[in-house]
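I had to read the description of the data format several times before I understood it. The format is easy to grasp once an entry is in front of the reader. For illustration, here is how one protein appears when written out as sequence plus structure tokens:
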Amino acid sequence: MRLNAGVKNLASPGSSEVSDKDDFAADSVSNAPDISRLDIADGLKQLLSEKHCDLNFLIQSDASTVAQELGIEKYVAQLIIEAAKKATTE
């Protein structure tokens, strides 16, 4: 069983390809344990979960890509990316 089924894991930062599986429980952050580790507001974690984004997508993307994908301001996207990078180095 793959925990990240349906989670966005883009091959390259500018790509808009998404996994074919879309059965991810959008309202459950527990299905994305990597996102739950981020030091960001719970509302942002929920948004990441709903948009099927994982840590790989966050650390491989730039702030503009993340902002566009999530529908948020670029500076907030940068904060999320920084939290993702920090979480992967701890």
Observations:
- DSSP finds five helices and no strands in the chain.
